[in-house]
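Q&A log
Question type: sequence-to-structure
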Amino acid sequence: MGIVVVTGTSTGIGQATAITLARSGHTVFAGMRNLERGGELRQIASQDKLPIKIIQLDVDSDTSVENAFKQTLEGA
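Response status: OK
Response body:
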C-alpha cells in the first residue's frame, strides 16, 4: 500500500482517517500541532499494531510543513 500524511490527527475526523487508512494497510504519518495530545492515537496504534508514525505538523507554518515532510521522506 501507500504512504499517506494526515493532518489534525489528535482528535475527530483526522484521527479517524489516520486509523482507517492504517487499518487498510497504508503507512500513516499522523500530523498534529501538539504532540502531547497524541496519547489516544498512540494507544490505538500500539494496541492494534498499526503503521502510524506521529509527527509534529502545523499547516499554518511553512517551516513546520517542511520539517514534517522531511521526516516523512526519511521515515518512508
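Response note: Residues 31 and 57 are 5 Å apart (CA to CA).
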